[in-house]
Fold this protein.
Amino acid sequence: MVQPDTNDPVTGPFWLAASEQRLVMSWCERCDCAVWYPKPACPECGGLLHWKTLSGDATLLSWTVVSKTMNPSFNGSYIPALVVPRDAPGTRLVTQLVDCEPAELVCDMPLALRFGMLQPREGDPYMAPLFTPFRLRVGP
């Protein structure tokens, strides 16, 4: 696992924003659409990209449960997922689901953004955008 590099000109702004607990996505000014994964310029029109802050609302597209260590960079089980950000419906964000049981997950369920520290086996922990099922709060 390579540590996220906040100095990388293409992906650095994503990881810097994550360290500040903000979810951003590269966005083409000319096409007015998300460009994901980040690139130096829009692959459709060659336009300039900027970073747009997203709300953090998303829907669950797909997931799996990893119960054995498959990624040698991390220990333990986890739930990798593809989510669709509400603000960028044409994109798919690879993430992890947290604070939930696999049995409660269903396609197209609403998700809420949570940030959490990921601890690789080697290297320093880093902040990453994670998601959890959206639950309405009842009471105070």
The helical segments are 12-19. The CA atoms of residues 28 and 46 lie 9 Å apart. Residues 12-19 form the longest helix (8 residues). The chain has one domain: 12-133.
